[in-house]
Amino acid sequence: MRGDPHQLRLSLAGMSTPSTQHTAHPAHPAHPAHPLPRPSRPGGTRPPPPSAAALGALGDARSLPPSSTSPPPGCGRREAGGLRQRERRRSVPPRLGPPSPRGTPGRHGRFLRRRALPLIRLTAARSGAAPPPGMEESSSCESLGAGRAVAARPPSGDSLSSASTSQSDHSAHTKSASLVSSDSVSTSADNFSPDLRVLRETNKLAEMEEPPLLPGETIKDMAKDVTYICPFTGAIRGTLTVTNYRLYFKSMERDPPFVLDASLGVINRVEKIGGASSRGENSYGLEIVCKDIRNLRFAHKPEGRTRRSIFENLMKYAFPVSNNLPLFAFEYKEVFPENGWKVYDPIWEYRRQGIPNESWRLSKINERYELCDTYPAILAVPVNIPDEELKRVASFRSRGRIPVLSWIHPESQATITRCSQPMVGVSGKRSKEDEKYLQAIMDSNAQSHKIFIFDARPSVNAVANKAKGGGYESEDAYQNAELVFLDIHNIHVMRESLRKLKEIVYPNIEETHWLSNLESTHWLEHIKLILAGALRIADKVESGKTSVVVHCSDGWDRTAQLTSLSLLMLDGYYRTIRGFEVLVEKEWLSFGHRFQLRVGHGDKNHADADRSPVFLQFIDCVWQMTRQFPTAFEFNEYFLITILDHLYSCLFGTFLCSSEQQRVKESLPKKTVSLWSYINSQLEDFTNPLYVSYSNHVLYPVASMRHLELWVGYYIRWNPRMKPQEPVHNRYKELLAKRAELQKKVEELQREITNRSTSSSERAGSPAQCVTPVQTVV
C-alpha cells in the first residue's frame, strides 16, 4: 500500500512542496560562475535515489522519533546546527556541477553545497563569525567560431563521450548566488540556512588573487582599486579582472571577502558613465546592463587609465561575434562522462511515437536543407504525399516551412503538426497541393473528420500579414477545417513587456504599488495566453481526438511555445529530465527557433529588433506547470534556472546558432560541449524528490490569472530583501534518505524475529508457530 501512487498523492497533500514556497535567491552572487576541479566523493559512490516504494510513505516521515531530528541534551541552536551540518556532510555526497546558491567548490578539493543561481556570485565570510544572511552558496552564425583554428582546441566528439574520466576531474559548473537578507542587512547566523555555515570553513575562493580559470580561459585585463557600486549594500573597493569568459571582481577587504563573478555572455551592453572632469564620489566608471535582469556598476579613478582598458576588453570579449572572434564555447575544453549531443536522435524519437506507420512516413527530402533551411534533415509527413508534392507545398508556406508531424496520440492517432503561415496575400491565393496536404493529415486520424488550425496570432495581426504576402487559411478553401486565433502577441510586444518587468523588480521593488506595477507590465497576461493556447491544443487532441495544425507567422517562435507546452501536457516522457532535453532539442533547436537572433550571442547590437524573450516565456510557463503539478515533473526549479542561465552564458554550444543547418556547418557537436553533458553528469542536483511517474496522465493546468504568479526565484533572485530559505526539495531529499534508512532497519528486524521464532520452534521439536511480522510504517 505504501507504494501506491494515489496514496502518495494524498500523503503529500498536506505537506509543503517546492511549488508553494519561494526559494530566496541572493542579490549578490556567491559562487563560482564556472567549473572548478571536482573533489572526490567521500565513501565512494553516491547513494541510489529512493525507490518508488520509498516515496509512498513520505507522508509518514513527519512522525520520525524526536531523537532523529532533535539536538542532544544541552546542545544549543548553534551547536545543533553544526552537528546537523557535519552529519549531512558525512551522509550526503558533495554536489557536483554548477553551484546552487549555497556555496562554492574550493580550490583544494572541498566543495560547498549551493543553490541555483548562475553567472554571478558573492562569497562572504567573517573569521569566526557567520556569513551575512542569504549568503548561499548577429543575424548569422558564420562568425561564431571565427579564429578558432588558432585560439580554440575544443574536445573531439569522441572525447566528449568518454566515460573514463574520474568524477574528481570534472568541474562544478557556472552559476551564481546572491546575497539575500531581510530589510536590514545583518550577520546573524539565525537568518540563513545551517548548510551555509560551511562557508566559514572553506573560503579559498575568496582568498584567490585571481579567478579560478576554466579550461581554455585566459586573463585579458586586470584593474586594481576599482569600486563596485552595489545597489543594496553600497560601495565595495577591490580588483576587477576580465577574462575571455567572465568578469570577476574581488574586494580588497578580507573581512568579509567579497567575490562577484559574471559570465561575459550575459552582458547586453556596456556604457561609460561620467567624464574625466566628473565630480563627486564614484561618478566615473562603467555601467554593465545584463540580459538576466541585473545591472552592474563599477567606479574607476579618473586619473588612471583603467576604465578605458577594461571597457575595450569588455567590448572585445563580451561581443566576440562583432569582433570576428570565437565565442568562448569554442575555447571551453571540459570533458564530461556523457556526450550531451547524443541526447536527441530523431529516428529513435519518431520510433518511440510509432512512426513510421500506415499513415506517416519519414522523409529525407530535406537531408541537405534544400527544401527548408530552417527545418531538420528528417521530417515526418503523410505517407500518401510524395516528395515532389512536398516541394509545391513548401512554395506556398512562409520560409518553406511545410506542416510536419510533432506528435501523434498513441491511441486515437490524432496528431499535432506545425508549420508557418500560408502565402495567400491580399488576393487570396490558393494551393491545391497545400489543401490536399491538410486533408491527408485529417484522413490519417480515423477518429475524426475535422481538423483544427490554431493560429497563434491575434486575428488583426494575421489580417495585416496579408499585405506582406502572408495571411491565414480560409475555411472555404480548406474543407472540414476550423480556424482558431489564440491572440498571442509578437516578439516586439514581449520584449517591451520584459523591459517593463525589469524596471519594477530591479534594483528596488515599490511595495505600495507592486500589484498595479506588475499588472502594467502585462507579463503574466502573456504567460496566461500562451498556457491557455497550449491547453486548448492538448484538449482537442486528447478529449476531442482531433488532429491540429499549429502556426504563427514563420513558425519558429509562438509555434514552438505552443507545441512544446502541449506535448508536456500530453506526454509524460517529456516531463522527465532526459525527455525535456529531447523536447528542447526537437521543438526548439531542430525546428529552427532563432536563438542567435533572439538572444544576441556575442553581438553588441543590443537594440536589434529581433531580440525577444520567447524561450524565457516557455520556461516560465513550464515553471507555472510545475507549481500546479509538483509531483508530475522529474526536474526541479534549479534545472530550469540552469537552462536559462546557460541560454546566455555562451559556455556551451547547445543554444548557439539559429538552425540545425547552421550548427552542422559550424560543427558544434565536435567543437563545443553540450549543456546536457553537464546536466546529465549530476542529475541528483536537478531531480525533483517528489516526482511520481504518471506517464499516461494528461495534465490540464489552470490558465487563469488567479493561479499564475511571478517567478520570484528567477526574476527577483538578485534582490537581497527576499527572506533566505533553504530549498524545500533539499529537505525532502534528507527526509526520504532517513525514511529509507529506517525502513531498512525495520525490515532487518522483521527478518531477525522470523528467524528466531523458526529456530526456537525447531529446538522445541514442535511445529513452527506462526509469528506475524511487525507491520511498521516509518
Automatic annotation (TrEMBL):
GO terms for cellular component: early endosome membrane. Residues 1-111, 125-191, 751-778 are annotated as: Disordered. Residues 32-51 have a biased composition (Pro residues). It is a peripheral membrane protein. Residues 76-85 have a biased composition (Basic and acidic residues). This is Phosphatidylinositol-3,5-bisphosphate 3-phosphatase MTMR2. It catalyses: a 1,2-diacyl-sn-glycero-3-phospho-(1D-myo-inositol-3,5-bisphosphate) + H2O = a 1,2-diacyl-sn-glycero-3-phospho-(1D-myo-inositol-5-phosphate) + phosphate; 1,2-dioctanoyl-sn-glycero-3-phospho-(1D-myo-inositol-3,5-bisphosphate) + H2O = 1,2-dioctanoyl-sn-glycero-3-phospho-(1D-myo-inositol-5-phosphate) + phosphate; a 1,2-diacyl-sn-glycero-3-phospho-(1D-myo-inositol-3-phosphate) + H2O = a 1,2-diacyl-sn-glycero-3-phospho-(1D-myo-inositol) + phosphate; 1,2-dioctanoyl-sn-glycero-3-phospho-(1-D-myo-inositol-3-phosphate) + H2O = 1,2-dioctanoyl-sn-glycero-3-phospho-(1D-myo-inositol) + phosphate. One of its GO terms (biological process) is phosphatidylinositol dephosphorylation. SMART domains: GRAM, PTPc_motif. It comes from the Eukaryota. The keyword Transcription regulation does not apply. Residues 521-568 form the Tyrosine specific protein phosphatases domain. It is found in: Cytoplasm; Early endosome membrane. Residues 14-23 have a biased composition (Polar residues). One of its GO terms (molecular function) is phosphatidylinositol-3-phosphate phosphatase activity. Belongs to the protein-tyrosine phosphatase family. Non-receptor class myotubularin subfamily. It comes from Phasianus colchicus. Its EC number is 3.1.3.95. Regulates the level of these phosphoinositides critical for various biological processes including autophagy initiation and autophagosome maturation. It is an enzyme of class 3 (hydrolase). Keywords: Coiled coil, Cytoplasm, Endosome, Hydrolase, Lipid metabolism, Membrane. Residues 340-715 form the Myotubularin phosphatase domain.
